[in-house]
Amino acid sequence: xxxxxxxxxxxxxxxxxxxxxxxxxxxxxxxxxxxxxxxxxxxxxxxxxxxxxxxxxxxxxxxxxxxxxxxxxxxxxxxxxxxxxxxxxxxxxxxxxxxxxxxxxxxxxxxxxxxxxxxxxxxxxxxxxxxxxxxxxxxxxxxxxxxxxxxxxxxxxxxxxxxxxxxxxxxxxxxxxxxxxxxxxxxxxxxxxxxxxxxxxxxxxxxxxxxxxxxxxxxxxxxxxxxxxxxxxxxxxxxxxxxxxxxxxxxxxxxxxxxxxxxxxxxxxxxxxxxxxxxxxxxxxxxxxxxxxxxxxxxxxxxxxxxxxxxxxxxxxxxxxxxxxxxxxxxxxxxxxxxxxxxxxxxxxxxxxxxxxxxxxxxxxxxxxxxxxxxxxxxxxxxxxxxxxxxxxxxxxxxxxxxxxxxxxxxxxxxxxxxxxxxxxxxxxxxxxxxxxxxxxxxxxxxxxxxxxxxxxxxx
Length: 460
Known about the structure:
The protein is an all-beta fold. Helix content is 2%, strand content 43%. The strands form 9 sheets. The chain has a 5-stranded mixed β-sheet, with no helix packed on it. It has a 4-stranded antiparallel β-sheet with strand order 4-33-32-31, with no helix packed on it. Strand 31 (430-434) and strand 32 (439-445) form a beta hairpin. The longest helix has 7 residues, at 244-250.
């Protein structure tokens, strides 16, 4: 196999907000790849961006999801702040007052029309005991065993609210065990913590909710038991979480970098690391949690890297031409001689079963920029889209949000397009695949506080 090195690819996109859902205007398709500082990002050209809310009571930790029950609507979740937060920086919510009283805020859900981006309903308060700090993720949509819900940071760690199976769109009124969320004497909705959590934990984002049967945790401090990330099973009646970092160290790894869950496998994780001090031993390793703090012996499935850049290893299930799926992992490697250009390596599983990958093939090496992080993926019916951030301007790329497309080639290969500079905003951007009209949607807050949506229709 010849490695595909992607230096100046293009991503063809046909876009028009006036185009009816399900249709594209191929004659307006443009080559949108650009890595030069000073070019206009894709979402800032023409009429690709619309305003959903002119006065948004959101912070940058909002979350957006297609409604799995009714795809013509998209849901947005965020947390607000109580009066005591007046005067605090916008992204800082203290966990307690100077006198030690807990500070709570509400978890809110609203929905808007996937066709034109108009706001339809809400916001509705679904929980009143969010408790976080400036670096704590906001609410995260999740799914487990057909249930759809929200995870959020609360006083006892990770708390959750779940939508009633036959309830209204906003009926997020159940705890993890199916009991109803209780209302305290002050009228607050006090959602219960999930079983496998502990004080100081909060949910980690980054994995499409439809792939989850587990929950990922960060810890506020190392004493919370999460050196990097912890993993546990959702809706478990007992058990605890696994700190993959600590378990990898006990298995003899010389270096451990970053982990990500395996798609559609509630107990599977992939992490980057090195068995010895020799970089030749580095790569990607697969293991499984046991639900009680343990980790199976790690198996190396790819040799490469070292992949040590933070939040730059992610796995997803790539749809195949035959209607199946194959595991794809995207991992960023830092600058190394002779080119001194950071790259994103695109790996696919040699077996098309995403549950049982034994070995992977390096399909493409995409040249990108220094400063990239915050990998996130969304999946369409025939592609995986990687969204990542470049936090500041570099000679090889401008600050902002970038997109990379990976498609199955039908013959054991993949095609890679991009990256494209989608938006100059480098943070607080959510990307969703809207199946209703087969489009990518980017959501973000404008500098003047408006909630905006950019619609991109992939073509080619």
